[in-house]
Amino acid sequence: MDVFEAVAEPNRRALLDALIDGERTAGELVATLPELTQPTVSRHLKVLREVGLVEMRPDAQRRIYALRADGLVQIDEWIERYRRYWTNHLDALERHLTKTHKETK
């Protein structure tokens, strides 16, 4: 599985969203998805770890999860192409609207 397959699943995206403000324990992450069982959340976390989007560190009996910024690079690079696309199209739209507005005065 790759990063894109991992984030295609909505519950995994929800787990990433839960980690955006900082580290969370496994129990806290399970609580963010009350419709899922603990084993199911653990499987999702395992997938996110395997593709490099999150890391886990043990803390006594707890497992602490955090985002791995470097894991998001592949997604960011892919999205960048679309940012450029939208920027170019929005710039063209702005020029068109400005021109149209000047012509109607």
Automatic annotation (TrEMBL):
Q: Where does the record place the HTH arsR-type domain?
A: 1-87
Q: Name one GO molecular function term.
A: DNA-binding transcription factor activity
Q: Which SMART domains match?
A: HTH_ARSR
Answer yes or no on keyword Nucleus. Answer: no
**Keyword Amino-acid biosynthesis among UniProt keywords:** no
Which keywords does the record carry?
DNA-binding, Transcription, Transcription regulation
Question: Which SUPFAM superfamilies does the record associate with it?
Answer: Winged helix' DNA-binding domain
Record-given protein name: ArsR family transcriptional regulator
Q: What organism does this protein naturally occur in?
A: Mycolicibacterium wolinskyi
Upper taxonomic lineage: Bacteria, Bacillati, Actinomycetota, Actinomycetes, Mycobacteriales
